[in-house]
Amino acid sequence: MRFLFKTDYDDDIRLLPHSGYVFSYGTLLVLLLIAPYVLSSYLMSQLVFVCIYATVGVALLILTGFTGQASLGHAAFLAIGAYTATYLQQFGVPFVVYFLAAGLFAGIVGAIVGFPALRLQGIYLVIATISFAFIVEEILARWESVTHGNEGMRVKTLQLFGAAVPRDSPAFFFLCLAVLILTIVGTLNLLRSPTGRAFVAIRDSETAARSMGINVSLYKVKSFAISAGITGLAGCLFAHKLSFISPEMFTLQLSIEFIIVILIGGTFSLHGAVLGAIFIVMIDPFLTYLKDDVPGMIGSLATAFSMGSERAGHIQDSVAAFASANGLKGAIYGVIIVLFVLFEPLGLYGRWLKIKLFFQLFPLYKRATFKRQKLYVKSERNR
Amino acid sequence: MLDFVQQVVSGIALGCVYGLIALGFVLVYKATEVVNFAQGDLMMLGGFFAFTFIGILGLNYWIGFACAVAAMAAFGMLAERLVVRPILGYPQFSIIMATIGLGYFLRSVAGMIWGTDDFKIETPFSQGVLRIGALVLAYDKLSVIAATVILCAVLYLFFNKTTLGTAMRASSENMLAAYYMGIPVKRVVSIVWAISAAVATCAGILLAPITFIHSNVGLVLGLKAFPAAVLGGFGSIPGAVVGGVLIGVIESMAGFYLPEGWKDVAPYIVLLLVLLLKPEGLFGLAARKKV
User: Fold this and answer.
1) Could you tell me if residue B191 is inside a domain?
2) Domain for residue B31, yes or no?
3) Mean pLDDT, all residues of chain A
4) Which of A314, B72, B207, B277 is the most exposed place for a label (fewest CB within 10 A)?
């Protein structure tokens, strides 16, 4: 185990505390840079979605993970970003401009939503954000002169500095990756600045934060605006990736998926957003695999255990029927969410930290290090 | 004028449905301070249970009704034991997520078992209308209104007059203190979940002739019942019903007088306005934490 000797505050807030970080993140970056030339086009497309979801995850982490304000309306910010970008693109506005405009406009809407949210707590805030998302969805469906209503809008190919960047090209992946990395670095910087510290203080105790002289309202609105802005940027990329947008893509379902991203990844660290995004996006290929390959595998297993070929065929058919059942994806989602909340509240990144600590402290690891505190006493109603 | 009255009455009937679902939310919230996002799905499941008992097994309507309510009460206890009890006492957000997960699971499983078609239950109220002057009221809607009023009154009395009801309110305020006072908090929570699942089942069965039963009905109606519960101030039983009726009337008015599209968003716009002016809802208790 490495012990870092810190002599001043700058040592404490350094983004890369020691050479190990440079090595591991450098390796990751190199692997990602060669990925488009190695992986199949399907996997690359999924990787682009991982980048977009992770960007939204980081945005949601700023709001939910670090400021403690739950939101089930982030699909609406994504939609605002996507529609702003697509609308401006029609008039031949260059990418850089409408990309930033998407973020800016979503950020402004986020700030506007943030104001009424100031007085709301817990469940009321969740409901308010859901309501907001419904209203946005309905506006998108009805404001036909701008959004073309339920017909949806085509998104033209991205033009960057005079060159076309098709949505399945390596260049588009690099663009999404760059946005993700810039977002992460920016967020890390934000979190070690006074603003980020104020966010965390508000999450831990609003009353304590206020008595320390933090302007709680101002920072909550800031947090909403920043989070919505980043989501808007991701929305622009999302629109380009799908090349077609319509209101029914941005439903509550999507907002819930974003929450699942940070819930599964872990809500206390930015690693969580990326891990969660990988998990959510890779569920689809996994289900396809389950549908295509697993029944045959089980069938041959049954044959190997000398069950008779007729019975083995029967088992194979029933497994295939189960794996291709309509609602399987929803059921798996549900079970995963419940299991994570019950058994792994710190998420995938928390699991990684536990495993790491286990080996670092071997054989002195104790479970209680990561134990959650139960609060039977505090009623959130009276907070 | 007659149009107006007719719209109000059908709005009230619709609102009572929302109110019935909202009652379930409020019950669980009142007793455990848990917000159950799967309430609509419990309702859907209750409807399917009743369909199985009445439509498939061919039981008498009332016997099937009772069987479905009993089965769902047991299911509510089971869900509480498996999903909610282990995380009781953790931040509200994790519990919300767990119930969202439960909802996903129930929806898909119901879809897998019963398929994705619409189902209908034959009830004694399915046919016939009541005429008062020129006003026409269908019996199925009247049955919803009557059931809502009865359930609301019974639950209100239960919470305010009985020992068990007081125990539930106490454990909501402060679980640890309630436990020290000799209240079996875990059992109380179990019972609350059973009651709320039973209320949801009543809603599901009464709704069956109006909206039919399909695996997504819980999500659609649950999301409408939420504003109802919040509007009334989460935690007030009459508030839930009043909120539900308000939402129902607003929705049917907006559908009748405003251009298309307003019907679905009007309840949410009203909700946001109410939350802006009165963050605790209409009947909520405004309490501030003392430091």
Assistant:
1) yes
2) yes
3) 86
4) B277
Torsion of the alpha carbons at A310, A314, A316 and A320, rounded to the nearest 10 = 150
B289 has pLDDT over 50 = no
Q: Is the complex ipTM higher than 0.90?
A: no
Peptide bond into A285 cis (omega under 30): no
Looking at chain B, which residue has its C-alpha nearest residue A252? Answer: B223
Nearest to B264 among A120, A138, A337 (CB): A138
Residue A26, pLDDT > 80, answer: yes
Domain count, chain B: 1
Which residue range forms the structural domain that includes residue B110?
A: 2-277
Beta carbons of B275 and A325 less than 8 Å apart: no
- Mean pLDDT calculated for residue range A282-295: 79
Token readout for A174 is 């690099």
Contacts made by residues B124-129, CB under 8 angstroms, sequence distance 24+: B124/B61, B125/B209, B126/B209
Q: What is the mean pLDDT of residues A85-95?
A: 90
- Whether the CB-CB separation of A276 and A261 falls below 8 Å is answered with yes
Contacts of B268 in chain A (CB under 8 A): 131-132, 134-135
Q: What is the predicted pLDDT for the residue at A207? A: 86
B177 in a structural domain:
yes
What pLDDT is attached to residue B290?
44
| A130 contacts B104? CB cut-off 8 A | no
Asked whether the beta carbons of residue A342 and residue B86 sit closer than 8 angstroms, the reply is yes
Cβ-Cβ contacts under 8 Å, B288 against chain A: 382
pLDDT in tens, B115-151: 777 777 777 776 777 777 777 777 877 888 888 888 8
Asked, for residue B167, whether it belongs to a domain, the answer is yes
Kindly determine whether residue A331 and residue B109, on different chains, have CB atoms separated by under 8 Å. Answer: yes
Q: HEC string of chain A?
A: CCCCCCCCHHHHCCCCCCHHHHHHHHHHHHHHHHHHHCCCHHHHHHHHHHHHHHHHHHHHHHHHHHCCCCCCCHHHHHHHHHHHHHHHHHCCCCHHHHHHHHHHHHHHHHHHHHHHHCCCCHHHHHHHHHHHHHHHHHHHHHCHHHHCHHHCEECCCEEECCEEECCCCHHHHHHHHHHHHHHHHHHHHHHCCHHHHHHHHHHHCHHHHHHCCCCHHHHHHHHHHHHHHHHHHHHHHHHHHHCEECHHHCCHHHHHHHHHHHHHHCCCCHHHHHHHHHHHHHHHHHHHHHHHCHHHHHHHHHHHCCCCHHHHHHHHHHHHHHHCCCCHHHHHHHHHHHHHHHHCCCHHHHHHHHHHHHHHHCCCCCHHHHCCCCCCCCCHHHC
Query: Where does the pLDDT of residue A325 fall: very low under 50, low under 70, confident under 90, or very high at 90 and above?
Result: low
What residues contact A68, with CB distance under 8 A and at least 6 apart?
Answer: A202, A203, A204
- Tens of pLDDT, residues A36-86: 888 888 889 999 999 999 999 999 999 998 998 888 889 999 999 999 999
Q: Are B112 and A379 an interchain contact pair (Cβ–Cβ within 8 Å)?
A: no
User: What is the arithmetic mean of pLDDT over B233-251?
Assistant: 84
CATH number for the domain spanning B210: value is 1.10.3470
Ordered by start, the domain boundaries in chain A are 41-281, 293-343
Among candidates A127, A252, A259 on the partner chain, residue whose Cβ is nearest the Cβ of B97: A259
